[in-house]
Each structure stands twice: as structure tokens, then as C-alpha cells.
Amino acid sequence: MSSMQLRTLTFAVSMVLAGAAVAQEASGRTRFILSASWQPAFCQTNQKKAECASQTGERADATNFSLHGLWPMRQDYCGVSAEQKAADKDGKWDTLPAVTLSAETQAALAKAMPGTQSGLERHEWVKHGTCTKMSAEDYFGVGVHLVGALNTSAVRDLFAANIGKPVKAEAIKAAFDKSFGPGAGERVKMSCRRAGNVKMISGLTIGLSEAAGAASAKSTGLGDLIQGAGKTTFGCDEGVVDAAGF
């Protein structure tokens, strides 16, 4: 092989590698997951939980997404004692340490996360929040902000307009793209559960970039965080948007 051919081959290989790097950068990398529940569907199979027994058609979680959690990828129970980890896995959330928050954040979280009535915030902090570099105040503040952005989007409008009816994956992806930019729907996974013979949409897990793990995310656009994440498969392809009540 001549030196000219070698240089040409080397250049071609470098261009391929550069192109692959650009493609990887363009697709982003998911570092956090925003888990948003459709509470009426969750409550169909958890009717005895306090937040389900008290749910009404007028409460916010009847027509809005609820905050389940903000999860760092592939990390959990960071610096947590074996006793707390065991209690959490056994569902003994009332024995976990109380989460200290400002009155303002506590009130906002109680609305965004009905599961606080069952100690969900203690579980989320012990399992996931401890693996971020944020304080509990910032961790839950970011979660409340992000689910709030979801609830002022075309996604929430789509769900609220179709309560009691089935919604297809493509419609949900299109709503994400409309509110959070082209390709946003490719960074979302939908979960469904059966209640009797009905397949209901139980929630969405939304990929976010590393920037979601900082206090500054409390003022960052959800679309920016989604666009910085990697693509995923959508999961459940169709489900009913459940109404509050059993």
C-alpha cells in the first residue's frame, strides 16, 4: 500500500469514527429517569393505600400526572444503612427517616406526589435521592418542577381529554414532540397494567440528561433535559386512561 493510499484510508477511518461520535452525541445519554404515574390506574390495584382511599375526581391527581420519582440511572441506596435498605425493600416506609423539607416544598410535594400519604417520599429519598448530589429540598424541588412541566403540556391535555378511552403510543409520542421538541417521544417509555379485562396506562418513564441531577434543574425546561437523553423503546403500545374511582 502506498503512503498516499494509507493516508486516504486513515482519513476515511477517522471520518467514520467522527461521524459515529457525532451520532452518539446527537442521540444523547440518559442519566436520569422522571417517573410519572397516572394515579387512577395505580389505585385500581392499590385501593387500600391511603392516597387511593382518599382520591376524588376533583383532586389534582385525577386529571394530572403524579410524581413517582426522579431516578439516577443504575444507582440506588447510596450510603444507606443495611437496616434502612431492608426496611425499604420490605415496604416498611413508615420506619424510614422523615424527609425534612421547607413548608413550601412539602405542600407542593403533597399535591404532586399523593403517595406521600403512604411515605413514598421516604422510599424515594432512601433508594434514589441518596444517589444524587442534591439535598432533599433540591431533589424533590426538581421533581415537582418537572412533573409540573409535564402537566402543562400537550401530553397531559391528551390524557385529560381521553379519560375512560384508549390512547395509542403514536398519539402520545406526537404530544411529546409537540411540547418538548422533535424526537422527545423517542425518549419515553409507557407502562400499562391490567385491571380486570382492561389494559390501563399506569405511567410514563421519561429519559433525562445529566443536568437533571442539579438544583439548577428546578428552572430548566423539561424539553431541554429530554432532548439530552438517549432514545428508548416505547413499551406498551396502547392503553385506557383510567378515571378516578373504583
TrEMBL record:
<dbReference type="GO" id="GO:0033897">
    <property type="term" value="F:ribonuclease T2 activity"/>
</dbReference>
<comment type="similarity">
    <text>Belongs to the RNase T2 family.</text>
</comment>
<dbReference type="InterPro" id="IPR018188">
    <property type="entry name" value="RNase_T2_His_AS_1"/>
</dbReference>
<dbReference type="InterPro" id="IPR033130">
    <property type="entry name" value="RNase_T2_His_AS_2"/>
</dbReference>
<protein>
    <submittedName>
        <fullName>Ribonuclease</fullName>
    </submittedName>
</protein>
<dbReference type="InterPro" id="IPR036430">
    <property type="entry name" value="RNase_T2-like_sf"/>
</dbReference>
<dbReference type="Pfam" id="PF00445">
    <property type="entry name" value="Ribonuclease_T2"/>
</dbReference>
<dbReference type="GO" id="GO:0006401">
    <property type="term" value="P:RNA catabolic process"/>
</dbReference>
<keyword id="KW-0732">Signal</keyword>
<dbReference type="GO" id="GO:0003723">
    <property type="term" value="F:RNA binding"/>
</dbReference>
<dbReference type="InterPro" id="IPR001568">
    <property type="entry name" value="RNase_T2-like"/>
</dbReference>
<feature type="signal peptide">
    <location>
        <begin position="1"/>
        <end position="23"/>
    </location>
</feature>
